[in-house]
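Hello,

Following up on my earlier ticket. Below are the four sequence lines again, exactly as submitted.
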Amino acid sequence: MTRVDVSHLDTPTLPDAADARRRRTPEERPAQILDAAFHEFGERGLAGARLDDIARRAGVAKGTIYLYFPNKEALFRAMVRATTIAAIESAEQLVEQEGRESAEMQLRRLGVGWWTFLRSDRFQVVQRLVLAELHHFPDLMQFYADEVVARGRRLIGAIVERGTTRGEFRPIVPGTAARMLSSLTMMQAIWCGRRQYFSDLALATDDEIRDEILEFYLSALRPNLPVGSTTDASRPTP
Amino acid sequence: MTRVDVSHLDTPTLPDAADARRRRTPEERPAQILDAAFHEFGERGLAGARLDDIARRAGVAKGTIYLYFPNKEALFRAMVRATTIAAIESAEQLVEQEGRESAEMQLRRLGVGWWTFLRSDRFQVVQRLVLAELHHFPDLMQFYADEVVARGRRLIGAIVERGTTRGEFRPIVPGTAARMLSSLTMMQAIWCGRRQYFSDLALATDDEIRDEILEFYLSALRPNLPVGSTTDASRPTP
DNA sequence: AACTAAACTGACTGGTCAGTCATTAAGAAA
DNA sequence: TTTCTTAATGACTGACCAGTCAGTTTAGTT
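Thanks for your patience. The regenerated structure is below:
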């Protein structure tokens, strides 16, 4: 059975320039299919989604899917990887840091970008799939843990460490501090995606919740005895 | 078609004393079936679980399930409600509060019980189902939001408020403070359930992580200027 | 012991859906 | 124009599984 190479599909948004194979329509069937898969799997889960629906959404016959992916599970896996990678890339653009700022300022900037990422459709779907289905796909789970959770924590941890050495923040294990911020933001981002069910969240805007989290977090990091601190005047009143 | 009343199944652990109907084996078929359903749905999700497997696990023929539940979806719904209720009840026993303690002490005690609850199998499964499947069951989602999330937050909020008026804690909106603690604990409890994938969590014990969270949280609540505070000597060194 | 009512069983059915493959269509090359 | 290669199609198949129901078992009643 002849079947095209699919190993490059991890980043389906990049058209495969080296491949001069002929194709009838647009140019990137795999990306079309993965996008449709994203929506259907995201809505119904692995077992619940139907390949007929994915095909229809992609504007393609069911058989075409099997030219690019050996089976449903492989399509699911490719979709998770592709979506995760796309999400990371979009996140990276959002968290660009300025060179010489206070750690607090860096944290605020990171917080804003990270929050925007967490509230994006892409992340919300990935998150749901991770918690719901990646049980059965340890390699994908590890991939997500390394590339999303651990990566995010490294960014935060580095800033916290710098803040500690600068005397802005109290002494704290950077990894722990990072875990605290990521759990605060991730969980509340998930809840915000289910706003309707939580009366208190329904009233607040996304940005207000994000700022509440940041202020709360910073108040836990600031030294309890603000004697010789450097950038202490910037603290807002709660 | 005659079919027994199922409306009382929300709390399947309580045998129905009023009902003197004859049954062959133990006495509580519904609870058997719901327990099997908990395991199968918890592992595979609504679409992925098979009624044959649930029946086999319950030690019952498939037809028997249909004597107690009209269809698969109804069984799923009953299972979610029953599990949630059972989880709440077990949680309530864990968070009994002493009358006259400092707010900090109350918070620590609540934190220990709440954490034990969050790390239980029951909660972990409910949590997964909520995030994965309750999309399609708004009423169950609301039930969970009210009875688990909001209820937990009310408990926390009341303690925080007392701590603020006693001068132990800095001024903070109780609802917000409660949301912070519940997001910290819930997210990290979920991660602990996936220990293997997170190198930093793999090293620590459950209790250590719980204590890290509590210390971090308390440090965010304590007044920044510890002038006339009452119970300040108890703060441990990080 | 005979009867009855209700609990229980599991083979069966019909619909659904992942995966297949013979056929068609679209270029490219000659 | 004809030929050749390969992308694409969608009707088809076979496995699977939710839901059914005619028959069986149990236990209470007379």
